[in-house]
Every structure is written in structure tokens, then in C-alpha cells.
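Page 42, continued from yesterday. The earlier attempt failed because a stray header line got pasted into the input along with the sequence. Redoing it now with the clean sequence only.
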Amino acid sequence: MIFREMINFCLKIKIVMLIAVLFFSVYPKYAVANDDTRTVYYVNATSGSDSNNGKSLETPWRTINKVNSTKFSPGDTVLFKCGNNWEENLVIPSSGTSTKPIFFGSYGIGDYPQLYRVSLWAGKKYVRISKLNMKMREGAALSIESGEDIVIDDCIIDGDHKSYNHAAVIYGLTKYGWANAIVIKNSKFKDAGTVENPVCNLSINGLSHNILIANNISYNASDNNMQAYSNKAETGPYNVIFRGNELYNSRKAHGLEIGWNVHNSVVEKNRCYGNKICGLIVVNSHDNVIKNNIVYDNVEEMACYGESYNNLWLNNTILFGDRTVKGMWFRAKHGAGNVFMNNIVVGNNSNFPELIINGAEEVESDYNCFYDEKGTKFEYKNLIYTSLDSYQSMSNQDIHSIEKDPRLIDEKYDLKSNSPCINAGITHLGVLDDFRGIERPQGVKYDIGAYEHVLKFE
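This time it went through. C-alpha cells are written below.
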């Protein structure tokens, strides 16, 4: 017990420091230019003319080429007419400043303006983009190369079933520096690639840090819906937050992959379901926190592969669907420091195990709730156990875990007032609130699973 308490104390301190770093470093500063210094430009594909000055609704520009060739001043705004389509690539030509970012958006009534690709290349800084429909043509629909302090808000990023690149990509180049302080929020990603040539809806590649991906919807990618990823030779992305996203129907891979050298990142409050392989997977990555996620109806729900270590899996709710064959699977080659605590895993009355720990060193699993009407199954070091008691005695894992029906509210997956998961978890400063943002704990102890029970939500 003393050893376990020392581990938990060290983990708490580590997580508090990580959260502080992420909170103070990842958010760009929002600023609006003073009205007396800002110029607003209008672009109308049907009634505009590039010979106009673009500075009023009556004198708009016509083409994106005109925008691309104009040098804008900090604080300027460029607005595209709703309902218009441009078969051109918007290449952001100028950077703003920390107090006067440059804005690109829309005006009028109708569908968001549709552009063939939006590119922020060569380290553009202090740019805000909102309410645009970006469509893939001969390259990513959205490309951010070594950008800094960029915000994409309420946009559509459409892969259009093309495979030229990922639908959206964030990356750094040595020549221009790291991609830093990038936010994509409240947006929709869809339809990247084909099954024959799979690509992702969003890929965050090496030399990227301080990235926030929040409250987006991503579906129907041919590869991963979203990923943070680097090859073995690169420094992996770090300080990346995936928060509050809905990720479903990857046609060939995972809802979300944290893969190859990704570290010091947080995956929280996401809903991952209906993906071809995993809902959420960590591969060859370390020192990440996966918490308060709801994952269900994937072939494999959650997994930890390769040389992954010091990853914390806390207060997730995992539910088998009809096609699920694995609940939580630790298959890390050098898995020291991986922790699986306060999670709910509900089986589907099949012969497949709710928890698998194979080839992983020093995984610590405890204070979880496992349940299957026909008997919970565990796989530990390639041996199958058909009860929690037998698995505990042979593995010395999950000593404080329970094997009971968690009594979840249908479809919401919140806890009913008679759930055995209430006050059954362990306090962990890596999880300060629940899936909804409700403060933990509401009772004398933490609840198990993604939701903290609050009577008014039942």
C-alpha cells in the first residue's frame, strides 16, 4: 500500500504540472483590431471585380487570386460572400500581430463560402479564420505549415473523398520553425480519402506543439479520423489537447490515434464510436493523459501498443458494441508506468475479454468497474481468466476493482443513483472534472467512469 500511495502521489504532482503547462501555453491570445485602423475587404464571386478597391459591399473583389496577391496590414479583415464558390486555393499572404490578427471569414446569408483549399505556409502568424468551407483539391483542404497563433473556428474541412493529402494537416518545418499555438474548434471534418488510398481527416505531424483541437465533429475518414503522429526520426508533437470531439465511422482505421513519439498531451471528453478498428489508440508514445472519454461500438475500444510508457488512462467509459472483440488492450513492449484507473468496461455477452494486459511491463490497473452479463473475462500474460477473483489472485492487479453492473443511463452513459461506481474510485488530481465539466468529487470519493453522478442529471 505504501508503494502504491507513493506512485499515486508522484503521478498527481506530475499531472498538475502538465495541466498547468498546457493551460498557460496552448491558447492563442484573442484580440480585435481597433476600428480606426482596420480595413474590411469584401469578395463576391458573382458581382465583384478585381479592379474594385474591395472596401465596400458595393465594390467587392471577385477572385481569390486578388486576395492572394494583396499585402494586408495587421488587423485587416477579408470576408467572402456566403453561397459563393471559388475553384481557387486561398494562400494566406500576410501575418497579423499579437494585438492585431488578420481575419478571414464570411458575410451575407446562405451556405458558407466554398474554397478549394486554404493554406497557411512559411510560418504565418496571428491569423483567424471562421465560417469557411474548405474543400480538398490537389492538396490538403487546410494546411498549416509552421504557423503560430492561428485559430480556425466554425469551419467545414471537406476531404471530398480525395487522397491528395490528409483533409487537414498541421506540421512544422526546420526552415520556418515549429507549428505553435494552433487552435481548431467547433468545426466539421469529413470524407478524407478512399479505402484504396486512405488518409486522415486531421493529422498533426512532427515539430508541432501547443495545439488545441476542441469541440469538433469528424467522420467518414478513410484512415484515422484524427491523429497526432510523427515518424521515428522526428521529434513528436507535444502539448497537444484533443478535447470534446465526436469521432466516428473511420472507414479503415481509428477514431483517434496518438502515435509515434507524441508526449505530454491530453485526450479528454471525446466520444469515439463506430470506427473500423480502435476508438482510441496510443502507439509508441509516452507521458500522455487519456481521461473522461466515452468509447463504444468499435472493433477494439481502446489500446496501448508498442514502446508506450507513462500514459495515464483515467475515468473513461468503455462499452462493447456488437462487433467489439477487445475492451482495453495493453500490448506495450516496454510499458512501464502505464496506469489504468477509475474506468468502466462493459462487455457484450461474448467470449472476448474486457481487459487484456500482454507484453506490458508494470501496468498498474485498479479501481475499475468490469461487467458482462455472461461473465467478465480478463487476459493477463496470454492466459484467460473468467472471473475478477481468479484474475486478481494470479496478477495482483485490480485489487480494489469491482465486477458489477455499473447501472448506466441508456445512451447518455451517465450513472444511475444506485450505481456501484458512485464513490468507488480513487482521487486523482489528473482528473479535476468529468465529461460534462462537473467538478470531481461530488460525493466523498471520485466516481468510476466518465461521469460524476449528479442527481439532477438522472
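Notes: Residues 313-458 form one domain.
Reminder to self: strip header lines before submitting.
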